[in-house]
Design a protein that fits this description.
The chain has 359 residues and is of the alpha/beta class. It has one domain: Rossmann fold, CATH 3.40.50. The protein contains ten helices and 13 strands. An eleven-stranded mixed β-sheet has the order 1-2-4-3-5-6-7-10-9-8-13, sandwiched between helices. Strands 11-12 form a two-stranded parallel ribbon. A hairpin with a 5-residue loop joins β9 and β10. α1 packs across α2 and α1 packs across α10. It is globular.
């Protein structure tokens, strides 16, 4: 088992290395106070005024691994938009997490948040991208950092998406961050909304928000998804408003619309999924590669987030409207069978497939 696990990790590393040619390092994009690395993907066929998507990886990951798993550059090449990956360094965080909970990195004009804003300004100018169609997404600590960017730089982003993330300013130290990840001690909804409002002087429209979370996430408690939704509903003046719910297979999507009928907030609850980015790696519209924290659960967050932002044509409709939020089949979410099995059987099957001994 140890040899198979080692071989699998080597294959994953090799896959990421082979894929890394898609991402190019961006030098001299600004003062870079957060000391981050910028990596980019710009399709050869890109046209002026194309959109830009900023992608923030999770802890223990890097840009190449997350791009391979999520399939963002594959979709960008197909749809003609540019990508910007901010990449963490171990000198900033030993586990390669973005420091979303540190006041010196999670405020406008400071640290990592400022570095990412500088990357965006450089990319849009260098490639003549549309500054009104810049979006940000991330997983886990990257999802929490996406929340930071939306709150501190709402003038830069048209929309964002947080996968297994946390609300802006829910923690201001590492001990607090660990407590919030466990679902403990969160500030009140009104306090979270007040912190987001005071993060930037902004009188224009707020970015749209897509929130994704697995119902069996044991690393970042799913209560954080609800806290993010409440924070953003308050910012949109939709506090207390009920969303419309639809069923997508075993999963659910809830949507809130503004006064003009535009979908501005959405929430996906991925039934039985643990901590990671939801993927759909089979079928005609497959994207990404399954692996640690990149979970094939039959629904592609990458594809659907791009659709929510208007960057990609919708996949075939599979949703069934429902009157209220659905429950997990057979009882509470804690009873649902996890959809991200990376146990011994899965490892053996993956190793056999990689060796060409199993289809």
């Amino acid at each position: 088992m140890a040899r198979i696990t080692k071989a699998r990790r080597a294959l994953e590393a090799s896959s990421a290395a082979n894929h890394n040619h898609r991402l190019k390092e961006l030098d001299e994009f600004g003062s870079n106070p957060g000391d981050l690395i910028a990596r980019t993907f710009v399709p050869d066929t890109i046209k002026p005024n194309a959109p830009l998507v900023v992608v923030l990886h999770g802890c223990t990951q890097n840009a190449a691994l997350y791009d391979t798993g999520s399939g963002w550059s594959e979709l960008a090449g197909r749809e003609g938009f540019a990508l910007l990956y901010a990449e963490q360094q171990r000198s900033n965080n030993a586990n390669l997490c973005f420091n979303w909970y540190q006041p010196g990195d999670a405020a406008r004009g400071k640290g990592e948040a400022h570095s990412i804003s500088q990357m965006v300004a450089h990319m849009t100018a260098q490639h003549k991208l549309d500054p009104s169609r810049v979006f940000v997404t991330g997983l886990s600590a990257g999802g929490a950092m996406a929340s930071v960017m939306l709150a501190t730089y709402p003038d830069l982003f048209a929309g964002g998406a947080a996968i297994a993330g946390l609300p802006f300013a829910s923690a201001r130290s590492l001990p607090e961050a660990l407590e919030r990840m466990r679902g403990r001690g969160a500030p009140s909804c009104s306090s979270l909304a007040s912190r987001a409002r005071s993060a930037a002087s902004h009188s224009g429209p707020m970015p749209s928000l897509s929130v994704w979370h697995g119902t069996q996430d044991s690393i970042v408690d799913p209560s954080n998804a609800g806290a993010m939704i409440d924070q953003w509903r308050d910012l949109y003046g939709l506090e207390g408003a009920a969303g419309s719910v639809e069923q997508i297979g075993r999963h659910s999507r809830e949507i809130w619309r503004d006064g003009a009928g535009r979908a501005v907030i959405e929430r996906y609850d991925i039934m039985g999924m643990g901590h990671g980015t939801p993927l759909e790696t089979g079928g005609q519209r497959s994207l990404g590669v399954a692996g640690p924290h990149m979970l094939d659960v039959g629904i592609s967050s990458t594809q659907r987030i791009a659709e929510f932002w208007g960057l990609s044509e919708p996949v075939e409709a599979t949703a069934t409207p429902t009157a209220s939020r659905p429950q997990a089949p057979g009882g509470p979410a804690s009873q649902a069978r996890p959809a991200n099995d990376h146990g011994p059987g899965k490892i053996i099957e993956d190793a056999l497939r990689a060796a060409g001994l199993m289809r």
